[in-house]
């Protein structure tokens, strides 16, 4: 397998994860990205072998992998930023390949794709740096250690059993007037408790 043809997709996955990390505003140590990143890269290698069975040219394999990675973008904003950047890279390649001094040489899109995706990674890292700069990692890790070492558990109720916990997320709920009109149900007690 030609690893250099997988580099643009691997960089794109890294940028995708870093961009999503910033977009979701999660804050955890960057090394926690390592396991999912390696998993994505392994899946990418397997996909490359599958695509290679159908396509003879490695550059076409790489382009297919970039499209696959974009289809599974973790953030819609990342998708549009990447599509615009890749369009810019493609236009740059078209201009570069048509220069009279380079017509005699065969030009490859791979270096421009690598540069474009590397810029995307640098941009995604830059988005996260401002948030990570303000974190005192020593206190973060010590609080995690304390949490792991503590024997914090749920308090027992009067019967010696742990309490039942119901976590209700209302994705959609019928208005009170509709419940009253259609089902003759007074929902005011529930609405008042939710609003308090």
Structure write-up:
The chain is mainly α and 196 residues long. The protein folds into 2 domains: 3-148, no CATH class; 156-195, no CATH class. It has helices at residues 7-24, 34-54, 58-71, 76-97, 110-133, 137-149, 176-183, 188-195. Helix 1 crosses helix 2 and helix 2 (34-54) crosses helix 3. The longest helix has 24 residues, at 110-133. The relative contact order is 0.11.
Describe this protein with a few key phrases:
elongated, single chain
Q: What is the number of domains?
A: 2
Quaternary: single chain
Portion of residues in beta strands equals under 5%
How many individual β-strands? 0
Secondary structure layout:
Blueprint: H1 7-24, H2 34-54, H3 58-71, H4 76-97, H5 110-133, H6 137-149, H7 176-183, H8 188-195
Task: Write a short abstract of this structure.
The protein is mostly helical and 196 residues long.
């Amino acid at each position: 397998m030609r690893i250099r043809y997988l580099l643009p997709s691997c960089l794109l996955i890294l940028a995708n994860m870093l961009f999503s990390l910033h977009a979701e505003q999660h804050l955890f140590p960057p090394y926690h990205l390592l396991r999912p990143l390696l998993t994505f890269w392994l899946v990418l290698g397997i996909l490359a072998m599958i695509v290679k069975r159908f396509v003879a040219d490695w550059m076409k394999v790489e382009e297919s992998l970039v499209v696959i990675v974009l289809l599974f973008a973790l953030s819609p904003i990342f998708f549009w930023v990447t599509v615009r950047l890749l369009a810019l890279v493609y236009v740059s390649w078209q201009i570069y390949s048509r220069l009279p001094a380079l017509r005699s040489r065969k030009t490859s899109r791979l270096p421009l794709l690598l540069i474009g995706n590397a810029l995307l990674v640098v941009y995604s890292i830059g988005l996260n740096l401002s948030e990570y700069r303000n974190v005192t990692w020593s206190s973060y890790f010590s609080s995690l250690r304390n949490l792991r070492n503590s024997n914090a558990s749920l308090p027992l109720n009067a019967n010696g059993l742990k309490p039942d916990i119901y976590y209700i997320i209302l994705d959609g709920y019928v208005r009170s007037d509709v419940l009253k009109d259609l089902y003759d149900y007074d929902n005011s007690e529930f609405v008042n408790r939710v609003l308090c």
